Amino acid sequence: MSREAKILIAILIIVVGGLIGLFALANKTTPPPAGDKNAIVRDDSYKPGSGPIQVVEFGDYQCPACGQAYPILKQIEADFNGKITFYFRNFPLTQLHPNANAASNAAEAAGAQGKYWEMHDKLYETQSDWGDLTKNLSAADAEAKWVGYAKDLGLDTDKFKSAVENQQYQSRIDQDVADGNAQGINGTPTIYVNGQKVDNFNYASIRDAINAALAASPSPSPSSSPSASPHS
Question: How many angstroms separate the Cα of 199 from the Cα of each of 7, 60, 69?
Fold first, then answer.
């Protein structure tokens, strides 16, 4: 074999080896986060309220049933103000709802600018505009609407759009999904009250579960109870 042929073979081996390495690197995926069957919520989960009863929704922004549950849960928050803490955890059903994961990214991107709940509410209140499955809105068209919402909320829209397109907060969503999977969740909305799954998402079922949890909670000791104000 000539010297030139040996050199060409060596170069070919190097090139092929490099291509194999690049292919392996390109296909290397970050291991998904582990789910925790005890993690109904996490320390960094978004939550309004500071009441003793924990109400948790695993939800999907494009899910029609979640859209129906949204005003019910808002009413629950109002009716049990001061008694509950509400948590929302992302559980996009991507096989059914093609824009659900991106919508979760939109909420997370808004949250990074201090407007998580404002975007959460907006996504549900406008679900028929961007998430109606019969309209089959493209991801780009849905994103354009979300950018408009971000502008209305006073967000930095360039930063918001970049975060959504690059899935900057996908790890948070993946952790929510992993924890939901660890619970055995297979549909949305799935609601828990103090760690106990509520069978239905209608108002009465959630209300009754909260009232039962309140009744089971220890009463504050007399020393910690606020003293009555004297009457004039």
Answer: 71, 18, 13
